[in-house]
Amino acid sequence: MQTLSLSHVLIAMISAFLAGGINSVAGGGTLVTFPSLIALGLPSIAANATSTVAIWPGSLGSMWGFRREIREINPRFLLLAIPSVIGGLVGALLLRRTPAALFDHLVPFLILFATVLFSVQAPIQRRLQTTPHHEGKRSTTWVLCATLAQFMVGIYGGYFGAGMSIMMLTVLAFMGMEDILKMSALTSFLGFCTNGVASILFAVSHMVVWVYVLAMMFAALFGGYAAAGIARRIGRVAVRRFVISVGFTIAVALFIKMH
Fold first, then answer.
1. CA dihedral 29, 35, 40, 41 (to 10 degrees)
2. Could you tell me the CA-to-CA distances from 94 to 65, 149, 233 in Å, in that order?
3. Distance between alpha carbon 181 and the CA centroid of its chain, in Å?
4. How distant, in Å, are the alpha carbons of 10, 58, 140, 142, 215 from that of 17?
5. Residue 217 in contact with residue 52, Cβ under 8 Å?
6. DSSP state of 131
């Protein structure tokens, strides 16, 4: 049984508060909460599940902020919620069945992969805004490929999740979406679906530490509102550099620990 203390809960809340603000400005908040929970002594799988459930409600804030764009999205893109939910469920089931020792060895690679994705997010988004797309041709093969791609992203999201948003943005670009705001809005919605089904499975499977979850939920929601203003004053670039530095530092430390 994980021994909890007030100081541990406060540290978890601070990480969630920072994650809420980071997510509202640059994304990548999971790269703060997940390692923080590991540092507090949670097993890696429990830390991953707890972080997912705790940060998930923050998606509601993003969806509310993008409510106008969501209303303007072509309904056929909203159908991607189906492979997102199924993929999220498969990913969460895979996590539940992954031996703890194996996941411990995967964690450094997952964090490094997520950090690299986060590092290239800005140039990819700029590329997406300047690259012409064609929405005319929609063959059966195209639809199946797009559905499969989103399903695979959903699996990754349900299994680990950090960096999922940039993967979704890339998929949406190949599907022909052009408006970066609508793409971000749809990413928030699909992420809500993916992490939602994963959170439900983690909860019913007793994979989360609820004391942390409840405290972090409140902190993340407040952080998304309050810390966003601070982060915007600091600047998006500075926030991104902070998250990238944290991600690479933790990945390197875990690789050293493995050896």
1. 140
2. 32, 18, 40
3. 18
4. 10, 11, 44, 40, 10
5. no
6. S
Pick from 4-18, 132-146, 190-204, 245-259: least confident: 132-146
**Tens of pLDDT, residues 5-45:** 889 999 999 999 888 777 766 667 788 898 899 999 999 99
pLDDT in tens, 39-90: 999 999 999 999 999 988 877 777 877 788 888 888 888 899 999 999 999 9
Q: Can you tell me the distance from the alpha carbon of 185 to that of 189, in angstroms, rounded to the nearest whole number?
A: 6
Query: How far apart are the C-alpha atoms of 32 and 25, rounded to whole Å?
Result: 14
Half-sphere exposure of 3 (CA within 13 A, CB side): 0
Q: Does residue 115 contact residue 160 with C-beta atoms inside 8 Å?
A: no
Contact predicate 47/38, CB 8 Å: yes
Tokens coding 39: 């540092």
**Domain spans of the chain, in order of start:** 6-258
Is residue 73 a contact partner of residue 182, using CB atoms and an 8 Å limit?
yes
Name the region of 139 (left: φ>0; alpha: ψ -120 to 50; beta: rest): beta
The confidence score (pLDDT) of residue 56 equals 86
CA dihedral 37, 38, 43, 45 (to 10 degrees): 70
